[in-house]
Amino acid sequence: MSCWMPGCPALSMCRALAALPITCLERAKDLKTRLGILFHKPELGHRIGTSSKLQLGSRRRDSSQEVLEWRESFDQLLKSKSGVTAFHTFLKTEFSEENLDFWLACEDFKKTRSKTKLASKANRIFEEFVQNEAPREVNIDHETREITRKNLSGATSACFNEAQAKTRTLMEKDSYPRFLKSASYQDMTKQATSRGISKRSHT
């Protein structure tokens, strides 16, 4: 609507808007856009919200079961991404996360198909975790260290097998039992158990 007659409401409105700071006008436009989305597409927000809640509920159920399975065996823990994350966080408190990092690096190394990449990755892993006074040296015996060093001359996907096995055994026999007894894991199991009881009571 436009009108240039004296006393015209539209003219007064235009002058009032022109007198407002630009930031106010921009905020008003932004607010109008957001309100328009809410008023014209309420069903979209409902669908997204419902879907998110369903997915979250599913994840909670799955993670509750997973948490309880971690205590069944060290293998069960290593099979779970969230289990590995929780165990890694625990190892940090003991300043021994390099053992798990080395084990994970070896798992990734085994998937390498390129011979060129295999050799370069092998040297990088050896320098970071295995050699004497490495930045993140893992706790393995001298004999295993030397065997691994010799394996580098003809790097294959199996060249870290012995060192990885020793590190895994160390974590399983030493760190893993302490992790299961830790306050953090005990809290997780209590929450998982209570969610399981709550779920059964509602079915």
From TrEMBL:
GO cellular component: membrane
InterPro entries per record: RGS (IPR016137), RGS_sf (IPR036305), RGS_subdom1/3 (IPR024066), RGS_subdomain_2 (IPR044926)
Cited SUPFAM superfamilies: Regulator of G-protein signaling, RGS
Signal peptide segment: 1-19
Boundaries of every RGS domain copy: 73-189
Gene3D superfamilies: 1.10.196.10, Regulator of G-protein Signalling 4, domain 2 (1.10.167.10)
Superkingdom of origin organism: Eukaryota
This protein's UniProt keywords: GTPase activation, Lipoprotein, Membrane, Palmitate, Phosphoprotein, Signal, Signal transduction inhibitor
PROSITE patterns found in the cross-reference section: RGS
GO molecular-function terms, A-Z: GTPase activator activity
Subcellular location: Membrane
Keyword Signal recorded: yes
Membrane topology: Lipid-anchor
Gene Ontology biological-process annotations: negative regulation of signal transduction
Main function: Regulates G protein-coupled receptor signaling cascades. Inhibits signal transduction by increasing the GTPase activity of G protein alpha subunits, thereby driving them into their inactive GDP-bound form. Plays an important role in the phototransduction cascade by regulating the lifetime and effective concentration of activated transducin alpha. May regulate extra and intracellular mitogenic signals.
Protein name: Regulator of G-protein signaling 16
